[in-house]
Amino acid sequence: MRWQTKEKAVERIVSAVGLFSVIVLLLIGFFLFKEAFFIFYKIGVMKVLFGMAWYPTYEPPEFGMFPLIMGTVAVTILTSLLAIPLGIATAVYIAEVAHHRVKEILKPVIEMLASFPSVVLGFFGMVVVAPILSNWLSPILSEHIPELLRSTGIPLLSTTVADFFYDKLFIASGLNISTAALMLTARAIPVISSIAEDALTAVPRTYREASYSLGAGKWDTIWRVVIPSSVSGLSVAVILGIGTIVGETMIVLMVAGGAAVIPYWIFDAARPMPAAIAAEMAEAPFRSLHYHALFGIGAILFLITFGLSLLSDFISKKYRSVRIGEKI
Amino acid sequence: MVAGKNIFELKDFSFYYGDFLAVKSVNLGIEARKITAIIGPSGCGKSTLLRSLNRMNDLILTSRVEGEVLFHGVDIYRKDTDVIELRKRVGMVFQKPNPFPSSVYENVCYGPRIRGIKKKSQLDEIVENALVRADLWKEVKDKLHESGMSLSGGQMQRLCIARSLAQEPEVLLFDEPTSALDPISTANIENLLQELRKTITIVIVTHNMQQAARISDYTAFMYLGELIEFGETDTIFVNPYNKLTEEYITGRFG
Ligand SMILES: Nc1ncnc2c1ncn2[C@@H]1O[C@H](COP(=O)(O)OP(=O)(O)O)[C@@H](O)[C@H]1O
Ligand SMILES: [Mg+2]
């Protein structure tokens, strides 16, 4: 075969494969929405989205997804509070502060953490973190500290604060949204920090040079030049990190506690949306209302993560046009 | 040359990138409130020498220096040198205009702000002064809060000069500041340098020999890391002492 002919053939094969995957993805999406449609049609959109009771196997069943949605929201907020600052700080450390030898070690370690199977993280949360919380941390926070505070006799401290510790920091079960948030943080940090690090490294050297030549120190340069000029890249890192948290299944299935009720406090249990699908799909009879309801959850999840990735795409496009063009 | 008038005094100064000797044992005095040009073919170490004067080369991990660079008689490579203070007094303008991606106003404020100046009226005054001195005020006074990157190339370079001037530097180092600009912008910057010379010491690296001849008081010719010849610009261009200098100036290589 002449090489042009070969080239043509390869091109055809590659585009066929690409087209095939696009078609498969479209079919999956179509299937997801087709199966999800029925539950909204049958029960009503408002009743499904804002219904307070998720009793899919009762007679008559109830399909209020609000507790599940709030489970995901609660876990995502808690995790974000930990993972966003830690992820960004890790990125700043690796990109700007670390000695290049430390960097050479730390970067692959973080990347390895990203490829850690989440079932292992879930398992670790279950057998190590959860018992530590309920057997060790809980007695200290809800018994020893209030006792100590009461014994001081200081107003406020010995009453209100002590009562707060006693009431609120008692951890009935180690499987709750805080444990889930801790394990999800381990999952999200590598995602956030690796994207954030790329964003920081992409800041042109000339900005740093300008800053240093004006007598700025390292931290001034990081705070006032590097971070502000990579803020869109950092936002993308944060958004994709949140996407990871929202979609993560195994960890929340194993350690969030599983209760399909709205969590009101950091040590309450929850059943985030992916956990509900994973836990219940096997028992839901084919084409039953329950089955359609689980597809409904899947569709909502899909819309959330799709929205997040559209947003990050939008931000990074805007960012690129600013960076490349001299004029804004 | 009278030593007392020299603001910088280089003594057997050498600069290494790793094992590579980029500047070889240079002895050079830079007179205050004059323009000193550094010329020479590409890769001969002009930028390296220039960046040694405010220790911008510190950012390169494997670099190493020998000899001394005296600034007001004190070696800036001593351990106890306050590099931040040094760079405030010895500012730098780069080849490619590099304003920050923020407003004209914020660009000029950058140095004063990191030195802790917060009062709006004081910052306003600094910004206006610096822009006036950089001959940019008239053009940008109505768009102080627009992006510095929306200016033309020549204006951006003058913005970078204003940003340095806001620090009230004693010395400004220019690394081929006009090589990315059109002839008119270049002429503007050259006129500006003549004006600034009245108050500031200027060291300029340039690729363009006519530019060196037009604007500088002293010229240093470098070749392969060595300082081949140094003297008054008129002498160097009319009657060079060294054969290499003559060949370079007459354009026989470069
Ligand atoms: N960061 C660096 N690391 C290693 N070598 C460098 C570095 N910067 C410049 N050099 C080398 O040092 C020599 C002088 O460079 P430079 O001072 O930039 O020359 P000029 O400004 O006269 O063109 C060149 O041979 C160049 O390749
Ligand atoms: Mg150069």
Considering residues with a beta carbon less than 8 A from a beta carbon on another chain, report the largest interface and each chain's count.
A-B, 23 and 31 residues
Low-confidence stretches of chain A are: 321-328
Q: What pattern of helices and strands is seen along the backbone of chain B?
A: EEEHEEHEHHHHEHEHEEHH
Tell me the number of strands of chain A: 2
Q: Tally the helices of chain A: what do you get?
A: 13
For this structure, the CATH topology of one domain in chain A is MetI-like fold
Q: What structural class is derived from the secondary structure elements of chain B?
A: alpha/beta
Which distinct ligands sit in these coordinates? adenosine-5'-diphosphate, magnesium ion
* Beta-strand proportion of chain A: under 5%
The biggest sheet of chain A amounts to: 2 strands, antiparallel
Sheet with most strands of chain B = 6 strands, mixed
Terminal CA distance of chain A: 51 Å
Write the layout of secondary structure elements.
The complex is a heterodimer of chains A (328) and B (254).
Chain A: H1 3-43, H2 45-50, E1 54-55, E2 62-63, H3 66-97, H4 100-114, H5 118-152, H6 157-168, H7 177-201, H8 205-213, H9 218-229, H10 231-247, H11 250-255, H12 273-280, H13 289-324
Antiparallel strand pairs in A: 1-2
Helix pairs in contact in A: 1-13, 3-7, 3-10, 4-7, 5-6, 5-7, 7-10, 8-9, 10-13, 12-13
Chain B: E1 6-17, E2 20-31, E3 35-39, H1 46-52, E4 63-71, E5 74-75, H2 83-89, E6 90-93, H3 104-114, H4 120-133, H5 137-140, H6 153-165, E7 171-175, H7 183-196, E8 201-205, H8 209-215, E9 218-223, E10 226-232, H9 233-238, H10 243-249
Parallel strand pairs in B: 3-8, 3-9, 6-7, 7-8
Antiparallel strand pairs in B: 1-2, 1-4, 4-5, 9-10
Helix pairs in contact in B: 3-4, 3-6, 4-6, 6-7
Bound molecules: adenosine-5'-diphosphate and magnesium ion.
Kindly describe this structure:
The complex is a heterodimer of chains A (328) and B (254). Chain A has 328 residues and is an all-alpha fold. Chain A has a domain at 40-49 and 62-118 and 176-327: MetI-like fold, CATH 1.10.3720. Chain A contains 13 helices and two strands; from the N terminus they run H-H-E-E-H-H-H-H-H-H-H-H-H-H-H. Chain A has a two-stranded antiparallel sheet. In chain A, helix 4 (100-114) packs across helix 7, helix 8 (205-213) runs antiparallel to helix 9 and helix 10 (231-247) packs antiparallel against helix 13 (289-324). Chain B has a single domain (6-249), classed as 3-Layer(aba) Sandwich (Rossmann fold), CATH 3.40.50. Helix content of chain B is 35%, strand content 26%. In chain B, the strands form two sheets. A six-stranded mixed beta sheet of chain B has the order 6-7-8-3-9-10, sandwiched between helices. In chain B, strands 2-1-4-5 form a four-stranded antiparallel beta sheet, covered by helices on one side. The longest helix of chain B has 14 residues, at 120-133. The radius of gyration of chain B is 18 Å and the shape is globular. The mean pLDDT of chain B is 94. The chains are: A mainly alpha (328), B alpha/beta (254). At the A-B interface, helix 8 and helix 9 of A face helix 2, helix 3 and helix 6 of B.
